[in-house]
């Protein structure tokens, strides 16, 4: 039987990863003028997602070289989060 704290930890990690994915898709839609940031709801969602993802993405962006407009920092962050989740599940919670 899984530890309830382990379940909560895994759920929070998955929720953060989904926020990253939604932020990437939203930034693409704004960049290609599919949606408009003058819409209040889009602006609020974009601002919220930017506030929760940017602190984790900023150090990765500082280290990565400029790839000419392609931002791979969300992919690297997702891979790091999966690695840390598996590490915590294996060594802190004792179940993999």
Number of strands: 0
Count of DSSP-assigned helices:
3
Distance between the termini: 12 Å
Would you identify the regions where 5 or more consecutive residues have pLDDT less than 50? Answer: none
Tell me the number of structural domains. 1
Q: Overall 3D geometry?
A: flat
Strand composition percent: under 5%
Helix content: over 70%
| Oligomer description | single chain
CA gyration radius, whole angstroms: 16 Å
Strand pairing plus helix content: what structural class? Answer: mainly alpha
SSE series: HHH
Sketch the major β-sheet.
none
Average pLDDT across residues? 93
Give a structural overview:
This protein has 96 residues and is mainly α. It has one domain. It is 74% helix and 0% strand. It has helices at 4-31, 40-63, 73-91. Helix 2 packs across helix 3. The longest helix is centred in the first third of the chain and has 28 residues, at 4-31. The radius of gyration is 16 Å and the shape is flat. It starts with a helix and ends in a 5-residue tail after the last helix. The mean pLDDT is 93.
Please tag this protein with its features.
mainly alpha; flat
Annotate the secondary structure layout.
Blueprint: H1 4-31, H2 40-63, H3 73-91
Characterize this entry briefly:
The protein has helices spanning 4-31, 40-63, 73-91.
